[in-house]
Input
Amino acid sequence: MIEKIQRRFALTRPGAVNLVKACVSCTISYLVIAMSIGILYFFTCDLIGIFRTGTGMPEYGIYAVQCAVVVILIFAAHYVQYNMTFFNTYTESARLRISVAERLRKFPLRFFSRRDLSDLTTTILSDVTGMEQALSHFIPEFAGSVISTALLSIGMFFFDVKMAAAAVWCVPVSFLLVFLAKKKLSQAGKKDRKIQLIRTEKIQEGLESVKDLKAGRYMESYIKEVDDAIDRCEKSQIVTELTNALFVVSSQLILKLGIATVVIFGVKYLISGEISLEIFMLFLIVASRLYDPLNATLQNLAAIISCDPKIDRLNEINEYPLQEGKDRMEPDGYDIQFENVTFSYEKGKPVLKNVSFTAKQNEITALIGGSGGGKTTCASLAARFYEPDAGRITVGGVDISTVDPEVLLSDFSIVFQDVVLFNASIMENIRIGKKNATDEEVMRAAQMAFCDEFVQEMPDGYQTVIGENGSRLSGGQRQRISIARAMLKDAPMILLDEASASLDVESETYVQQALSKLIEGKTVIMIAHRMRTVAKASHLIVLEDGQIAEEGTPEELLKQDGIYKRMTDLQHAAGQWKI
Ligand SMILES: Nc1ncnc2c1ncn2[C@@H]1O[C@H](COP(=O)(O)OP(=O)(O)OP(=O)(O)O)[C@@H](O)[C@H]1O
Output
């Protein structure tokens, strides 16, 4: 049962156990409150007796004690309920966020390429927050009021079957109405969520590309698009609320009819002598109390139903297969070998077809070819960012699909064009390469990567904070920081996206010198765009349309008079152009 609850509400196992406890404590709370009905009933019976006989007095003392006991019990039950719901909920939502983040860490990139960033951020932040409310209020209160009402209803049948039927007929009818509306409520919730996502994406897109928007004078049309997205979102939220309200209010009205039927049938049975005045009073008291928790419950039921899309998304993350493997890798050297590797991002559209090559240790293997040929994909597969559809990739004879991705990545240094920097000091940004490196080691790596000169000129040297994604640095400086990280890591395999393509001559010279030091004695797979860089490589692989079109040393390929020769000639000609 715990597993079912876990899956139904996308919880961790302790969360599911705690949810059961919260439901039990809510039920007890409601039952304790219902005890006051008993006191009121006996007090009313006493009064009726006194009015009938015209003698005696109710025993106020006993009733006062009973009331005091019930009040204490209500406080105690609420205290337990509070701890079981709120305290456990916040612990669970922290656990959920950590578990989602932990799982995301172990997902292949394929998962992320199918989801956009705002969708994921929403899942981690707002879906979990939405579930917080469901766990602390909706679900326990729903379970508590349904169970306590069911018990009270059963109890009422022991007193009088006909009156009990007059009191409780409306309960299943109003629940049925909300359940019948489940599909509509769920659809409205899903649609609303999609529209909210579009709004968030639009705003995020604008914030990320504010420079381009201003430069291209698109700001006005962008603002209009955002306005439209916000308007659509507002309308959709109103429709969702109205759908919700329509079904909930109708069910609550049906529930209220219960009091009317108790009065109508009660008076009828009282006059015909089928029930006593005491029983009539009992049902009036119970009916006045019975529907209050249920009113809130109907609201809760609608809220639980509208949580379904959140639960689906969390479950998608909980059930997506993780990339796992051995936590040790003992390769025989660091040759990277592709054996008949086929890979596709989308089913049926392979971007690598039967690719086989070996990137040897102590050599630079350059991947070249036209745009979209599959160079970046090859490099990503080597680091197990994705899993091949067929074939295998080995490092020193070890199939990388059997190794934990984090263990594998600890043997890779990756220097790509898009350098990711954090809003922290330069020291910390370089230290990412080796978490436990001393300041001296960081500075040595920075010197080797030609960072030292520009770092010393900064106001706080290595302690200068470089802004979000290194916004205070130039392109060449960012790349040298990324090379310094790789130097510090000193991993035996290097993936290199020709990192100096967009730099000015001076920066490029620095970056090239830094790279030459970095790659000494390593297995290097380089994605190369310019034939000048490639001339230094030991082994060239020309990828065209996901297949190896040519392979060999630069000299061999020049002789072949094929794609490589053509690319070299074209770039040489481009170098001669004058404006
Ligand atoms: N995340 C992705 N999802 C779907 N298709 C992708 C993805 N990344 C790349 N592709 C497609 O896979 C093919 C190979 O892309 P890849 O980036 O490996 O080529 P490339 O040779 O590195 O190109 P370039 O030199 O332009 O960087 C292209 O058709 C590209 O559109």
Notes: DSSP finds 22 helices and ten strands in the chain. The longest strand covers residues 336-346. The CA atoms of residues 347 and 501 lie 33 Å apart. Residues 219-271 form the longest helix (53 residues).
